[in-house]
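Exercise 7. Predict the structure of Polyisoprenoid-binding protein YceI from Chitinophaga terrae.
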Amino acid sequence: MKHTVPAFAMLLALAACGGGASTDQAKTEAKQEVAATTGAAFAIDTTTTTVQWRATHKGGFAPRFGVIKVTDGSLTVDNGAVTGGSFDVNMNSLTTDPASVTEKDKKSTDLDGHLKSADFFDVAKYPTAKFVITGVAPFDSTKQKSLLPGATNLISGNLTLKDSTLNITFPAQIAVNGNDVVANAKFVIDRSAWGISYKTDGSPEDWLISKDVEIGFSLKAAKK
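Solution. The predicted structure, encoded as tokens:
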């Protein structure tokens, strides 16, 4: 199959992807140290937590989108605020929504297989993607801008895709209600920063695929 569209994931809901035009572009930096956190542990509900991805060909043609499953994770909460946490994503669970594959000669399952192959995520060798929170700060709408309605926090964390780990920062909505936490986010990453390219970076085949990949998550966690 040719000219498929790669996408992640951590973490974890989504509008059209396109250089941050409708979604915040995540700030990307070198891997950061994970600070020690205090507070109560909350287990992520892997049955209700979802991670979504969306990407397109150059020019916005043939958008592809789908989901990936979170297999394990937890958060720490202190004085009503999330202080840390992490979650794992099963890259073997990556699926493409059949509604996004409209070409008569293509199937969503074909795209699934191509994305999982060594051409992209090489899930046989790297079956798990991981996100580890390195910082959670309040979001100040008078000083900061976000395309995410109702953003409450800025989350920073180390995102590992294949054998590469980088730190990303993005706005999120976080609500801590007693024994439950609900969090939502939507942001764009540049896949090439993690070395994910089709054939070679800059090749005609790779050029046809947008480097921007939209990631979203809807996360729920409960106190242990």
